Amino acid sequence: MSLISDIRTRLNDVPERVKVAIKVAKTSGFLWELRAAGAAQLVRTMTASSQNPSQIYRIHAKNSPDKKALVWRDRSVTFGELDARIDRIAAGLAARGVKRGCSVVLIMKNRPEFIEIGAAAARLGAAAVAVSWRSTPKELVYLATHCGAVAMAFESDLWHVVEEAKKEIPRIADASYYAVGEPIPGTTPAGALLEGAAPFVAEKGAEDDAAVVIYTSGTTGKPKGAVRKFPKDAMPAFMRFIAETPMRVDDVHIVTCPMYHSTAFGFLSLSHMLGNTCVLMDEFKPEPFLALVEKHQVTTTALVPTMLHRVLALGKDVLARHDARSLRVVFSGGAPLPGPLALEFMDAFGDVLFNFYGATETGLVTLAKPADLRAAPGTIGKAVPGNDIRLLDDAGKEVPTGTVGELFVLNKFLVTGYHKDASATQESMKGGYFSVGDLARADRDGRFFIEGRKRDMVITGGVNVYPAEVEGVLEQHPDIAEVAVVGVPDNEWGERVRAFVVKKPGSTLDEGALKVWTRERLAGPKVPRDLVFLEALPRNPTGKVLKRELRTYTVP
Asked: What is the arrangement of strands in the sheet containing 188-189, beginning at the earlier edge strand?
């Protein structure tokens, strides 16, 4: 055997995940900054049976302990400090009864503690359950009960919601409510988790059970908990995506979306995988975003299309006051990206826009690069390596090129299913492929385009809203006879929620009163922005509401 043949044979025997890691390390520049201690930890991580995100911090704590990992307001924390804090919090949680298989609810805006407590839970083999800080007390009760939470870490400013929900969550002891920020009487300061606990020692194999649970609205009106675990193929799945982008080891990333959202969590993890410094925004506002980009020389970010629209809506004069030339990569996803919006943004900021398609349940599936968006505005791009996409008709057969079918995907990053909802999991799968109900077509160049949703999901500002849930709440109003909810196009939000309401005879209910009533019972994105009162809903002969007519209804 020749030397070249021998080398080829040896390379073929190297696991694919290691080859992907080497490729990304070279193209991103990470390889040239890798030290001996970091390399050793990287090898241990890549060969471990589980690769949950908390292990990222072990690698960089060994490799670049003094590099800033997080910047939030006037605070910053290095990778060395962050890894040590995660271990101490894990020890503190363990001393207070959190163990392998438990669930810990996180309800807070973007801040370092969100990452620290979530990663600490992972090291215990527990599940970090991220919920919207916009949740109402009733929604919080359902989520905490459904996931079987034994602890809740909450931002002090949200105590009014947590306190109300707490009355109906007997499973969580008073001492297991951890206040992040100002102390709250009757609860435990989150800082106490850092104090007095014995040194953390990971239980062997515990991290194999680590999970992140993200709740998405369900078609039956109740949210579904998508359970994501992190097997040994998880990190290579991330790396295949990175390999398709210009992301580098020296990037500075700004987190704009709420971290309970898959987009924010996913791109934070991608950035930290490369050892990037991540700047956290509590809550997105367009001009402060540009100011932070200029201040920290931010190079990458992830925005939902609504945010792109809001940035451009500032106008040329305001945009000119902020130097955003450091931006090299702006990822857009979470909602349909209109072609005109993509072109307008690139005309203003340069060809830095990358449109991705993915879901909480599937991970990152496709990527449209700037050239794709110029050539085929509106595309979600081509399949990211490692994703097998099929467009199927109702009979489960693949549709021809150019024909619309339901998008199913198979990859190494699919969720294990929906928590306590076997039927929903089964309905979403065909032969191991997973679908969230989106309809798509493919062109001859292999680019995909989303054409609609098989289910009635509304995506407003990157947030998934299912009409059934909103309808279920509105129908509880004593003056409402019937209601139907649809999504209608919106230039800023992509879509907005519109409710068609039929009042009971003699009712004097008006739009203002109903909006107040609804806001008390639904999280912000779910509250209908339009309320249209009708004498009757359009129905077919069998009694089914004709939502296609409502979507095209012209409001007087």
From this structure: 188-189, 177-180, 151-155, 103-107, 127-130, 211-216, 224-229, 417-418
Q: From the CB of residue 316, how many other CB atoms can be counted at a distance below 10 Å?
A: 9
- For tokens 């870490």, the residue is 153
Q: How many CA atoms lie within 13 A of 377 on its CB side?
A: 11
User: What Å distances lie between residue 510 and 378, 467, 481, 482, 521, CA to CA?
Assistant: 39, 21, 14, 15, 17
- The pair of structure tokens assigned to 121 is 């839970």
Count of the separate structural domains present in the chain: 3
Q: In this structure, are 477 and 546 located in the same domain?
A: yes
258 in the same domain as 191 = no
Pairing of the two strands 494-503 and 480-490: antiparallel
The CATH number covering residue 519 comes to: 3.30.300.30
| Within-domain flag for 520 | yes
**DSSP H helical ranges for 274-387:** 286-296, 305-312, 316-320, 339-349, 370-375
Q: Which of 434, 453, 472 represents a domain boundary (last residue)?
A: 453
Pairwise CA distance, residues 300 & 302, whole Å: 7
Strand partners, 230: none
Nearest to 107 by CA among 75, 129, 90: 129
State which amino acid sits at residue 391.
L
How far is C-alpha 65 from the chain's CA centre? 27
Q: Is residue 2 in some structural domain?
A: no
Closest CA to 90 of 216, 200, 219, 249: 200
Q: How confident is the model at residue 13 (pLDDT cuts 50, 70, 90)?
A: very low
Neighbours of 282 (CB within 10 A): 15
3-class DSSP state of 381: strand
Q: Which pLDDT score, from 0 to 100, does residue 459 have?
A: 87
Is residue 40, in this structure, part of any structural domain at all?
A: no
State the residue range of the domain holding 485.
458-551
- Indicate the length of the chain as a whole number: 556
The last residue of one of the domains, among 453, 481, 496, is 453
Least confident of 52-61, 155-164, 328-337, 457-466: 457-466
